[in-house]
Amino acid sequence: MKHIAREVGVSAAAVSLALKNHPSISKARREEIHAVAERMGYHPNAMATALARHRHQSRAHPVQAALALINTYPDPARLHAQPSYADCWRGAILAAEKFGYRLEEFPVNGKQPLKRLERIFLTRNIRGIILAPLPPGESHVDWESFAWSKFSVVRCGFREQSPPFHYVTSAQATNTMLAFDKARERGYQRIGFAGYWDKARMFGAGFLWSQHEPSLPSRVPPFFFSQETPELKQQGRFEQWLKTAKPDAIITDSLAVPAMLEKAGCRVPEDIGVAATNVRDMPVDAGIDQNPREIGRMTVLALISLIHDNDLGQPESIREILVRGKWVDGKSLPFR
């Protein structure tokens, strides 16, 4: 860095800041320093960086900065009432504290619109924002009113409706393939899927890939709910699918499926086995634990890395961080 500083005619400290893309160095100067560094073959000393980080992290950290989590639920408590999110929140809190941050939640509503939060964050020098999972249905948040270019942002969970940012979520396709394999191990031959058709939800994709396993004795077409119609109002379509597809097990990401099966006169698990893609939030005890605490932890780690790299605003290339879940045995999908 001293050699680069001598070449450019600045201090070594300025070179250090420029290589970290710090805004205190002008964009033109940063680009000049990066170009000289590349020409001179500069690479960070990975061992020295790791040692410095270890020394920094091994000390007790006073909480010195805040990260913001934006909750857009009309009733913010409804988000925390979901068991999986409660665990995700705990994982995020612990990760933030480990690195000297305090995670604070900020609701968005009529009294506190998104634009007001922008002023609060800038006044308090909050540089990092987590967008919490969005509520079902259309969001009435004015996303365009916020100056995203001034902040580092990561989404927890994925919905195409929200602004395009890096996100951390469950490995939905992989988790569904795991559930499919576990159902086969338990002796089920005709495994179906009942859930949502949504480009942002990959459970159906995992199921469809599993259906193309060469050794599979029979294939069952999936049942997709219409997005415009509540699940329970689609009872007739669902019962027709049960009669024609004849599944002996169902993998589902819908809260309504157990009640719909009961209404159709199907007993769980006597007549049909059921596995959930998220056992923490659904009335089914067999299926996938999405590992929400790790999702929360990784969300904070991804955000801190953006802050350290001074990576602000909407990215040109979206990063997806997918966290794998684990299988949980339950009475709703016993061995056949």
Descriptive overview:
- This protein has helices at residues 2-8, 12-19, 27-39, 46-57, 76-80, 83-98, 114-123, 172-185, 203-210, 235-245, 257-263, 292-308; strands at 65-71, 101-107, 128-131, 152-156, 166-170, 191-196, 223-225, 249-252, 273-276, 287-289, 320-323, 326-328.
- The strands form three sheets. A six-stranded parallel beta sheet has the order 2-1-3-4-5-11, covered by helices on one side. It has a four-stranded parallel beta sheet with strand order 7-6-8-9, with helices on both faces. The protein has a two-stranded antiparallel ribbon with strand order 10-12.
- The model has no long low-confidence stretch (mean pLDDT 90).
- By secondary structure, the protein is of the alpha/beta class.
- It folds into three domains: 2-57, lambda repressor-like DNA-binding domains (434 Repressor (Amino-terminal Domain), Orthogonal Bundle); 65-171 and 293-326, Response regulator (Rossmann fold, 3-Layer(aba) Sandwich); 172-290, Response regulator (Rossmann fold, 3-Layer(aba) Sandwich), CATH 3.40.50.
